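Q: Can someone sanity-check these two? First one:
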Amino acid sequence: MKSIGRCRAHTNIALIKYWGKRNEELFLPMNSSLSLTLDAFYTDTEVTLDSTLDSDVFFLDNVKQGDKETAKITNFLNLFRNRANIETKACIKSYNHVPTAAGLASSASAFSALAGATNQATGLNLDLKTLSTLARQGSGSATRSIYGGFVEWFMGESDLSESSFAIPVDDATWDIGMIVIAVNTGRKKLSSRVGMKQTIDTSPFYSSWVETATKDIEKIKKAISEKDFITLGEITESNGMKMHATMLGAFPPISYWEPDSVKAIQKVKEIRDMGLPCYVTMDAGPNVKVLCKRSDMIEIENKLLEDFTRDQIIPSSVGEGIKLLSQDEWNY
């Protein structure tokens, strides 16, 4: 017997950052966060429950993965199998249209797509809130990729897993866009997970980060409700820089930046000074994301091309939430 589920999920870029867990096993964050889902980057995943399999098998971009990576997937699938009261093993085929481990939120789209496909394959038909809660336990930021547009992830209460989930805030269809400046799409040397823990354990700035992030999220939600792009951008840029400041305060100091990261930040500020509103944010990686108006994207791209190559400039519109794929839509 076989049962198949297929799902597409897009990445999201946090405007109010998630950096640090209070419960590492359940991926419960130290603060709430808010993101923008992007259509340019996504993951397609197929889950086939197959009674003839003796163990789970995981292929990423047609490459069979080893025991360590497969074990992570098995643990995640067990969240669904336990609910469905089944032990059937699965063949998972995932295709990442995002550079892996480059600070471009590949794990967000990966585990969100895996959650959607597994939900379909098991026949559980869980609602989006529950899927968001489960996706979080694969990758924290995956909880937000369940939805499109602007999305808020609640930090939740204490160690109550069911209290920490994401909800859609706004569809972001009011002239919102983002440009990724791909400084380096290679795998980063220090994982986000390790960087978070080191920052929490050693940075004297961390407690202030959590306190101000809580204030930032209320301010940015107000800006979104009022469609105030300037305030939205200013808060986004400030929050991202504060997160990286906490890393610089860690022992030993952590920096994901490269020389071209600084070059990109300076270029964006130069463009802004010309009268085009655009703001930077960065995650745990060297790549720079530019929040801008969709109607300004071509002009901003042309100015970025003065310093960066065409393949380094990746424009994106707002992405949608998870989508189940039919056999005809599965083009692999």
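And here is the second, same format, sequence then tokens:
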Amino acid sequence: MLIGTIEGVTRIIGKSQGYLGLPLRDELINCTVGGQGTPAMVTAWQPTPDELARLNAGASVHLRVLGTVHPPVMVGVGDPPA
């Protein structure tokens, strides 16, 4: 996956740690566990042509989290480009 630019980006994380830098949008969501106003960070990703072909062939999306403690995450699909 290629890092995308999320609409309404509020900050870029990871660059000072040696990563490429990940644009994200901070937002508050209504979470069934954390309640109304739960802080969340949203990023955008674009599949490469090979990944898109594999997705269209039925492959799953894999989420890799670095470390040994898994934070709560949500995976979804954004709107197509206008």
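A (reply): Looked at the second one. The first strand starts at residue 2 and ends at 3. The mean pLDDT is 94.
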